[in-house]
């Protein structure tokens, strides 16, 4: 996707600034906008290349010259060597469209708990980010990790900001399991504010209004029928420009089988889009570290819960979990889609780099 000398470069006056990418530090910040601001300030990446050919000083290759082509592009040196007419083709620097689909469904609100360090106030942390504090980030404590949604919001915000700085187009789509909403692709500083507003509070319809407008879809118990992930991909395929770069950020728990989203992904790939899956998961979901008797409460279906001894289901859970995750990973590979595990314990910049380094 990018050449070695065109990768995202991390720039910092001091190594301590890299603490801004730490999920431990970010979890202590209650403000999404503050997270986005400092994450974006800590990163910049090199130029990307489009797939469209045009006229520029960036030479690409030779191709046979034909009658009707502009003779000024004939490479006369090649003609003297071969006796054949070839013209030079060039790679055109173009604006690329970046599109981000962020999953706002209930399961994305999960974030495990742990405690690190001796504790500091949010005010001190904000000063730390601004450069007023140079203390080790190890002294900062928290009781809760970033939720999967917060982690996804940070990735999308940072990558969107960096794309805008390159004068590229950025579009956003959000789905919550019932509705899908989009922010049109655009560029410029004004669009950055729109992106933050959208990521912070997507313009989903109010539940009462939405439920009333969807009466025909109501089930017998009165709830509107959920919208699966494939429906969100359908809307994305309808609105996304061709030859864009699409980043999907979700735990993909709504994807019970790879086949359920295969048709939509084939459409996106047929449009010459480049796709990257950020498979966002919490440590608890990956390792299932629970020991004592636990009550597991569904974040998708209100009122659904299960009280169980983790030891009795751990082996079966991990087996099923890895089979499901590997099916998505292998499915991506067969379609030429990038798949990246986004563990919410991993610093934000490392996850972003894994997504653009292909």
Question: What is the strand and helix layout of this fold?
Answer:
Elements: E1 8-10, H1 23-26, H2 32-41, E2 43-45, E3 53-64, H3 76-82, E4 86-91, E5 97-103, H4 122-130, H5 148-165, E6 169-175, E7 180-186, H6 189-200, H7 207-213, H8 229-239, E8 245-250, H9 262-270, E9 274-281, H10 283-287, E10 294-297, E11 305-308, H11 310-335, E12 338-343, H12 348-356
Parallel strand pairs: 5-6, 5-8, 8-9, 9-12
Antiparallel strand pairs: 1-2, 3-4, 6-7, 10-11
Helix pairs in contact: 2-5, 5-6, 5-12, 8-9
Folded structure, characterized:
The structure is a single chain. Helix content is 35%, strand content 20%. It has helices spanning 23-26, 32-41, 76-82, 122-130, 148-165, 189-200, 207-213, 229-239, 262-270, 283-287, 310-335, 348-356, and strands at residues 8-10, 43-45, 53-64, 86-91, 97-103, 169-175, 180-186, 245-250, 274-281, 294-297, 305-308, 338-343. It has 358 residues and is an alpha/beta fold. It folds into 2 domains: 53-91, no CATH class; 97-113 and 145-356, von Willebrand factor, type A domain (Rossmann fold, 3-Layer(aba) Sandwich). Helix 5 (148-165) runs antiparallel to helix 6 (189-200), helix 5 crosses helix 12 and helix 8 runs parallel beside helix 9 (262-270). Mean pLDDT is 74; it is low at 1-18, 44-57, 115-142 and 214-225. The chain has a 6-stranded mixed beta sheet with strand order 7-6-5-8-9-12, sandwiched between helices. It has a two-stranded antiparallel sheet with strand order 1-2.
